[in-house]
Design brief:
heterodimer; A: 457 residues; Formate dehydrogenase/DMSO reductase fold; 0% strand; B: alpha/beta; Rossmann fold; Dimethylsulfoxide Reductase, domain 2; 5 domains; seven-stranded mixed β-sheet; disordered N terminus
Chain lengths: 457, 1015
């Protein structure tokens, strides 16, 4: 027992796994959520609501396809509205998963083991939500595939100078790597589920998905190699995807877009919102499924610290934007900053400052970092703040650009809201399904955290 | 749907067989269900042969399936209900008019498929003819341009003239003769009127009243006089809401007889306009006046100086070198002071304030070789005073000319309709024939004409009109009128020159022209319009070969020798009556104006004009209650607040727009809105200002009350902000302007107003256009542009640009490829105003091109930024990245793909864009290519390289521009007009500091203010 303590309590840190667990209890605890625990009414209620929201999204998209992009609030000069705001927001949220699984893996931050599985799932689902928007926001969505460089009889390639083109590569690569990484990480656990499942159908399905995993040393060896390689591949993506997304704006000449601070500031913002989403999911999950032993105070604290750090980078980004607006002497940039502070969208801008810079400063205080309720609240605020940030960048920059004669206003329509809330519904629906049919915490990786896993000479 | 197609069958022999109407699935099924057994198959076979069935098959989806999604929007409704069904298949068989029409010189006189023909003809507005050339593709008129050789046009064409094309094709036009709303044949009308006419014959026509609009047509006037000979007791009344009674009465005061005044702005060094908006469409002769005025705006030549004293903010006021905004009743007073200043005449003017004093003294020093002009809205005494002033200065014969009246029946129209109404009340009228016009809607409110028609004692009322409008509803008989583009006629231009109106197409709906209807009364029953006009001119023609004369007149577009020669009319010495009312300066004055885009309401159903931004406030689709900033502040009224105007117990409600430059204690409303039966496009927009307009105060009324309602109405203004000064206090150098003095001191003042990056500052290797055959460029002279919007309509017609409706316009989704921005500068009470037409800049470093992910917008070797509609997927990134925001996006299926009439109207050389596609100005690429092909053909024929001659190729906007403000051509040719302009020191690029290197550049505006007044 003393040794266990030594293993799990680093000086000044809470344990990443509560004492008293063995291989068997860990496996039981996690796999029971999927295999034996009866599906609660709460799950059905939550899933039902999320499902309805998804249907609402499909309805909104169906109507969009029928009538055209005009059902949204986009117009000239604000050619991009909620669709792009939501796209960037979701992509940003997706970043936490890869960061946790890949970068922290490479950095041997073993505390990540209890949150990486659902963080990755969250990434995947967030990218799925994000991926909807670029496809449906074009005027002729049935031709959206023209953005892909496929061999065709028209003998036309996409235009490689366009950041939207880069986006296609960045996002599709990211989605692919995330999916593979997640799936490979699942294989040993799928085998566990296969072995433990009672229902024959479950056994067959998990069996197929486990791809013949037997847990032999050779399997483990290959698994570790593949996993590390994929982690190596995914790591640059964490930086590149949002950098490329930020190019959508930074390459443009619109004042408020055309700035070199965007890539790092977008990446930081992405991780910021990603961790906020991880916390917003982890806090209720650990409570409902009684996983406090596995997702401990330490995880909460660490995530909060990451948020604090990235939040400060984002704040620096805002500062530099404002500074450059003045320092560049460019009348259009100067006006863009003025317009954010005093224009018709000043309220969202101040709300953004409050959400992204103001309230998260609470995280300096240990009490807030360790209180699930406070963290949940701060994470929620950060998610709103990061959404507002994209709104400010996309909409508020566009609505007043160079020629005063072409200034306009953007008012989202109910279709905009239905689509946005619908993707949140879809995200939650997928999360509910994930919790119900796959182990939300990596069983085998948790086992490596136990004292039993320590190799004795 | 079915009854429609039945009707179309009933319409008679003229319709071609495929015009049977269309079937929908339900009716198909019904047809088949009726039959059984062998019959079943037979009917199927019959059906299969039916063109309507073929069409139904072709459509793939049942009728309406593709439309139902549009049901929410007004435009959608417009499409679903398309009266087009009666015309299905018409596109396949256009019918040329029966009589020979004569094409214009530009093309050989035979039809070459794919090449348009041009015909000279005219359309009228307020009686005055606008001479035009109509482009015709295989018998379908598709575009209206000014008649280059006619002195009244010289190639320019105003908005109403050009947009009349859309009216001609309007599917909402009245399509048949009706009796109490039911369809009748022309024959049944003929027999219905026979009885009453015979009865009147005995009474010498004592019960016949003809109500026309202003008539300048010699043939029609002759016919009416004949009618009055046959029925000596009958009466001919004239009424048009936008009439020139004041001008006429003024002339009568001054000369004792009706006299037409004509101006020569090219000779005037100083122009003084008293509320005369002579630089905007609707003012007789405006196209010519704009041209003459603009010619004198060259800062390198002898520049003219324009003073404007006006009661609203007009585009003429915007061009003024000095502008004074005062109430209309004070203008009259100032006219008297001005007259006093030229030492010939003194009325009894009240002393003007210091500002006005200063202005008048500066002005009177300059008066030699000037031109003083008064607006139609000012009272007759002002016009008489102005005649005196012009005479006293010696302008008559130099810049001001007097001729016989162009109006064939120059009577006071207000008096005329008053008399008609009192005759009706007295029960003297048995047969009222209303030829055109819409008096039930636009007659003075105190006459209550609609009620007079409804409850009056006129047993038989006949209305001839293009639309089943408010008046048609109250007449038992309505005869559908032919449009001027589909009928024969004649009319006089502002200078008196007669244009023979020749039809470009056989009447779409078998209508009758006024001439043809009147022929029924003058016992020429079956005479065709062609015969009537021809026979009249045969009687007028003396000597020579009539056939040659006729051909030449049709070909040229006017009858030689018919323009009125200037005559001298001495001003009577007697004093003019003092002005009738000098309003109490504390009471609020109400000004009525013709609407800048829908005129008096006759263009209500014209989508192009409804969506055309009004020049000074860029409002579309609605009229507004215009008030000045000071008054708005005092009354605490914000823009778009709905207020109630109350005048003598009559009330109307409308939204307020705060108009910079509008005088205090004064309200301006425009006429023509608030229609109840305009058609699907025009019904319901705006408020009806006619409800306040009375015979005693048709233009200027005093004592209007403004009551706040607390309501709010979303007006659709297409311009985001009308100031170059941003709210943070920075002024952007968008329109660059200086004074003549500044220009002389520093000719480069305009390019120096902003950073101008050196060429070659780009990541990508700059393309060398020097070796290309052509490098297209455009120069827009802001000095010349008068903001008349002619370019916008020209572009809309040439490039098949869709109309999107009020709601979409309000959201910012209008589709104009060229827009005219209007900016105000300085004091909002009396600002300087500038116009800036903005087409695509065709940037050499185009920001739109690099961001398109599918390469749908690319640069051509000739420097054009080309748009490939078929490749566009609609990311809208290009529009976001366009600093000029000239790109337009099809947010919905804005184009009407189903209405047959619109199919006929469209320019076949330009793609009709579909939903989800970006579009923008192409520099009229279709015209460029047409000329390039011609040049290449010529090259091959001649065996040497022949290039397009400079000036031969014109963009649509350039062609329509009455001011010649737009110049387009090859900048590789150093001798081209555009290259020369671009070398001028005034030339600058909009937002040049972005290094976009636009091909469209501007010549900065130079104003010529009186130094005495510039302190």
């Amino acid at each position: 027992m003393d040794e266990t303590r030594k293993m799990t309590i680093d000086a000044e840190h809470a344990p990443v796994i509560e004492p008293g667990h063995t291989f068997a209890t860990v496996t039981d605890k996690i796999s029971s959520i999927v295999l034996t625990r009866p599906t609660s009414n709460g799950w059905f209620a939550g899933f039902g609501i999320a499902f309805l929201a998804t249907m609402m999204m499909l309805y909104a998209i169906g109507y969009l396809f029928l009538r055209g992009i005009g059902i949204w609030g986009v117009t000239i000069p604000i050619g991009w509205g909620f669709a792009i705001v939501n796209f960037v927001w979701w992509i940003g949220i997706g970043h936490a998963g890869t960061l946790i699984s890949a970068i922290l893996l490479l950095l041997r931050q073993s505390w990540r083991n209890s949150i990486n599985r659902f963080a990755e799932a969250m990434t995947l689902f967030a990218v799925a939500c994000a991926g909807i928007f670029p496809a449906i926001h074009v005027g002729r969505p049935w031709l959206a595939y023209w953005l892909f460089p496929y061999p065709n009889t028209m003998r036309v390639w996409p235009q490689f100078r366009s950041p939207l083109m880069w986006d296609v590569f960045a996002v599709s690569t990211y989605a692919t790597i995330s999916a593979i990484f997640w799936f490979i990480g699942l294989i040993p656990d799928l085998a566990t589920l296969r072995d433990r499942a009672i229902h024959p159908a479950a056994r067959i399905i998990y069996g197929i998905l486990a791809m013949g995993w037997r847990g032999s040393a050779r399997h483990w060896h290959r698994y570790e190699t593949a996993y590390l390689l994929l982690a190596g591949l995914a790591t640059p993506l964490v930086l590149s995807v949002h950098t490329v997304v930020s190019f959508d704006f930074a390459i443009g000449i619109v004042p408020g877009w055309h700035t070199t601070i965007f890539p790092p500031y977008f990446v930081a913002g992405a991780i910021y919102s990603g961790f906020a989403m991880v916390l917003m999911l982890a806090i209720p999950i650990r409570k409902i499924y009684g996983l406090e032993d596995f997702i401990t105070e330490r995880h909460l604290q660490n995530s909060a610290k990451v948020m604090l750090a990235t939040g400060l980078i984002v704040a620096y980004g805002y500062g530099i934007e404002a500074f450059m607006g003045w320092y560049s002497g460019d009348r259009y940039d100067a006006f863009t900053i003025w317009n954010r502070l005093h224009g018709p969208y000043a309220i969202p801008y101040y709300a953004l400052l409050l959400c992204n810079i103001g309230i998260p400063q609470l995280l300096w205080i240990r009490k807030f970092r360790t209180s699930p309720v406070a963290l949940f609240f701060v994470s929620f605020v950060v998610l709103i703040g990061m959404w507002l940030e994209r709104f400010i960048i996309v909409v508020v920059s566009l609505h007043r650009d160079f020629l005063t004669s072409s200034w306009g206003m953007y008012y989202p329509t109910r279709w905009d809201w239905m689509t946005y809330l619908g993707t949140i519904g879809m995200f939650l629906m997928l999360m509910f399904l994930f919790l119900r049919i796959l182990p939300a915490i990596s069983i085998f990786e948790m086992r490596t955290l136990l004292p039993e896993a320590e190799v004795k000479e | 749907m079915h009854s429609k197609s039945d009707n179309s069958r009933a319409q008679g022999p003229d319709l071609c067989p495929s015009k049977k109407g269309t079937l929908d699935l339900a009716s198909l099924r019904a047809e088949i269900d009726k039959a059984s057994g062998p019959e079943y198959w037979r009917s199927l076979e019959e059906l299969a042969g039916d063109p309507a069935f073929q069409e139904a098959l072709h459509r793939e989806f049942p009728k309406g399936a593709s439309e139902w999604v549009d049901s929410v929007s007004r435009r959608g409704f417009l499409k679903v209900m398309g009266a087009s069904m009666a015309l299905a298949g018409m596109t396949g068989c256009v019918k040329l008019p029966n009589e020979p029409i004569v094409p214009y010189v530009r093309q050989p006189e035979e039809v070459i498929p794919g090449r348009p023909m041009f015909y000279a003809t005219a359309v009228t507005l307020g009686g005055y003819a606008s001479p035009i050339l109509v482009e015709s593709h295989l018998g379908r008129p598709t575009n209206i341009q000014g008649n280059l050789q006619h002195p009244a046009s010289m190639g320019g064409a105003d908005i109403f003239t050009q947009a009349s094309l859309l009216t001609m094709y309007d599917p909402d036009r009245s399509q048949s003769v009706t009796e109490l709303g039911d369809q009748r044949s022309w024959q049944s009308f003929v027999s219905a009127i026979r009885g009453p006419l015979a009865a009147q014959k005995a009474l010498k026509g004592a019960g016949i009243r003809i109500l026309t609009t202003t008539v300048t047509s010699p043939t029609l006037a002759d016919q009416l006089r004949n009618l009055l000979k046959i029925y000596p007791e009958a009466k001919w009344h004239v009424y048009e809401p936008v009439n020139r009674d004041n001008v006429l009465e003024g002339a009568k005061l001054a000369f004792g007889q009706p006299v037409e005044t004509r101006y020569d702005f090219s000779k005037a060094d100083v122009i003084v306009s008293l509320d005369a908006d002579f630089l905007y469409a609707g003012f007789p002769g405006n196209t010519r006046y704009i041209r003459d005025f603009a010619k004198r705006r060259d800062p390198d030549g002898k520049m003219n100086r324009l003073y404007v004293i006006e009661s609203g903010m007009s585009s003429t006021g915007a061009k003024a070198d000095y502008r004074l905004g005062v109430r209309a009743d004070q203008i009259e007073n100032l006219a008297l002071v001005l007259a006093g200043a030229v030492h010939r005449f003194s009325g009894n003017p009240t002393v003007p304030n210091a500002d006005e004093e200063r202005f008048l003294s500066a002005l009177s020093n300059e008066l030699p070789s000037s031109l003083v002009i008064a607006g139609d809205n000012l009272r007759p005494a002002v016009h008489a005073t102005v005649h005196r002033i012009n005479e006293a200065i010696g302008n008559v014969g130099k810049t001001v000319f007097y001729t016989d009246p162009v109006d064939a029946n120059p009577v006071s129209q207000t008096e005329s309709i008053k008399e008609l109404v009192s005759d009706i009340h007295a029960g003297k009228v048995d047969l009222l024939i209303i030829l055109g016009g819409n008096p039930a809607y636009d007659a003075p409110a105190d006459l209550d004409f609609a009620n007079v028609l409804k409850n009056g004692k006129v047993p038989m009322r006949v209305h001839l009109g293009l639309y089943q409008n408010e008046t048609a509803e109250l007449c038992q008989w309505h005869v559908n009128q032919t449009h001027e583009l589909e009928s024969w006629g004649d009319a006089r231009a502002y200078d008196g020159a007669v244009s023979i109106i020749q039809p470009l197409i056989a009447p779409l709906y078998n209508g009758k022209s006024a001439l043809e209807l009147l022929a029924l009364l003058t016992e020429q029953a079956d005479a065709s319009g062609h015969d009537l006009v021809r026979v009249y001119w045969q009687t007028q023609h003396t000597g020579g070969d009539f056939e040659a004369f006729w051909r030449k007149s049709l070909h040229d577009g006017w009858v030689e020798g018919t323009s009125y020669a200037p005559r001298s009319f001495p001003v009577k010495s007697s004093n003019f009556p003092p002005s009738s009312v000098i309003g109490d300066s504390n009471s609020i004055e109400l000004n009525f104006r013709r609407d800048p885009t829908i005129y008096d309401g006759q263009f209500s159903n014209n989508g192009w004009l409804q969506e055309l931004p009004k020049p000074m406030n860029k409002l579309t689709w609605d009229n507004a209650i215009l008030i000045g900033p000071k008054m708005a502040e005092r009354l605490e009224i914000e823009p778009k607040h709905v207020v109630e105007l109350e005048l003598n117990g009559k009330k109307v409600k409308g939204p307020v727009w705060i108009q910079a430059g509008h005088p205090d204690n004064s309200v301006t409303v425009t006429l023509g809105y608030g229609r109840t039966r305009a058609g699907r496009v025009g019904t319901g927009w705006g408020f009806n200002a006619y409800a306040l307009r009375t015979t005693s105060a048709p233009w200027i009324a005093s004592g209007v009350k403004i009551n706040k309602t607390g309501e709010y109405y979303e007006l659709a203004s297409v311009q985001g902000m009308q100031s170059m000064e941003t709210p943070n206090g920075d002024t952007r150098p968008l329109v660059r302007a200086g004074t003549l003095e500044e220009y002389r001191q520093n000719p480069n003042f305009a390019p120096e107003m902003d950073e101008n990056p050196a060429p070659g500052l780009t990541l990508y290797k700059p393309y060398d256009y020097k070796d290309e055959a052509y490098a297209w460029g455009m120069a827009i002279d802001l000095n010349k542009c008068v903001g008349c919007n002619a370019c916008m309509i020209a572009c809309q017609s040439e490039n098949n640009i869709a109309v999107v409706g009020q709601e979409q316009t309000r959201l910012g989704r209008h589709m104009h490829w060229i827009r005219v921005d209007a900016y105000y500068q300085g004091d909002r009470e009396n600002p300087k105003a500038f116009f800036q037409p903005v087409p695509c800049m065709q940037c050499e470093n185009a920001p739109c091109e690099v961001v398109c992910p599918v390469a749908a917008t690319n640069h051509s070797s000739e420097g054009l930024n080309d748009m490939i509609y078929n490749r566009c997927v609609g990311t809208r990134y290009c529009s976001n990245n366009c600093p000029y925001k000239v790109r337009r996006f099809n947010f919905f299926l804005f184009q009407d793909w189903t209405t047959e009439q619109y199919k006929m109207m469209r320019n076949p050389d330009v793609s009709v864009r579909s939903r989800g596609v970006m579009e923008k100005c192409t520099y009229c690429i279709q015209r460029i290519n047409e000329h390039k092909i011609d040049a290449e053909v010529a090259s091959v024929r001649e065996g040497k390289t022949i290039k397009i001659k400079d000036g031969e190729l014109q963009t649509a906007c350039q062609q329509a521009c009455p001011a010649d403000a737009i110049t387009f051509g090859d900048i590789n040719d150093p001798n081209s007009a555009v290259a020369k302009l671009k070398r001028k020191s005034l030339n600058y690029s909009l937002l040049c500091e972005l290094n976009t290197r636009p091909r469209t550049t501007y010549l900065a505006e130079v104003r010529n203010p009186n130094p005495e007044l510039e302190i």
